[in-house]
Amino acid sequence: MPSRSPWTCVLWDVDGTIVDASDGILRRLTIALEHFGKRPPTRAELVHWIGPPMYESFQANVGMTPAEATDAVSFYRVLGKADGYTTGAKLFPGVASLIHDLAAAAIPQSTASSKPEVQVVALMDHFDLSPALTAIVGATPDEKTLSAKADIVAEALRRLEAAGADISRPVLIGDRHHDVEGGAVHDVPVIFVRWGFSWPHEADGAQAAVDDADQLRDLLLFEEPAGLEGADLEGADLDGADA
Question: Is 192 helix (H, G, I), strand (E, B) or coil?
């Protein structure tokens, strides 16, 4: 029986949701912060860096001024380009097959990442996910013109609609409070994945929270006749959202 979805389109955060790029991020952050005389983060402290735009993180996490943060982002991006945007990146288990299955069910999908779009494109190409996506959306290179999650979500919806997708019942998949807050600005419900880089309380406000790709699949696809449109997720596992 063909698979269906309660959603008309799916938006995906990338870092911490589809891709684990923590090894490369930690290495480049260490080099960049030491270059600017700042203490690099430990692996445990990556939770403060992965998710928000780097321009904001350099200010919030190590006290840089906006001008210093601009220089730091430029330096960090040079490292990334030299390193290769996909070096050390890994897919979280089961996510790629779910993205392909959603595409097979004709559900339009887009990334909605605060990562620079050129890097998102490289990652999606590297993992052969680009053909399954209707749009690939990320931040502008300066991480200022387009970087806030709410703006990224709006741009992803705009591009999906321009491509002819039905955006009447979108859902955003993400792993940080920025995803929950950015989705809320546009009344886009969020399914929070616990396998990313986050604190438990960041799921507050999400429609549902899941521990693995199988649980996520149950909320995105079903093999039943039409009639469950707009499926109610109120009964879904929300333990993480209350933690």
Answer: strand
